[in-house]
UniProtKB/TrEMBL annotation:
<keyword id="KW-0812">Transmembrane</keyword>
<feature type="domain" description="Ice-binding protein C-terminal">
    <location>
        <begin position="13"/>
        <end position="36"/>
    </location>
</feature>
<feature type="transmembrane region" description="Helical">
    <location>
        <begin position="16"/>
        <end position="34"/>
    </location>
</feature>
<dbReference type="InterPro" id="IPR013424">
    <property type="entry name" value="Ice-binding_C"/>
</dbReference>
<dbReference type="Pfam" id="PF07589">
    <property type="entry name" value="PEP-CTERM"/>
</dbReference>
<keyword id="KW-1133">Transmembrane helix</keyword>
<protein>
    <submittedName>
        <fullName>PEP-CTERM sorting domain-containing protein</fullName>
    </submittedName>
</protein>
<keyword id="KW-0472">Membrane</keyword>
Amino acid sequence: MSSSNKFTQGTKVPEPGTILGLLTVGGLGLVSRFKKQK
């Protein structure tokens, strides 16, 4: 367990849900900006 715990702390990779949330918010922001320009 100690080896896997050190591995997760060393990589510091955010949770998949966090990544999906950021991508969704970023995508929606880009789409709204693109639509406002037209």
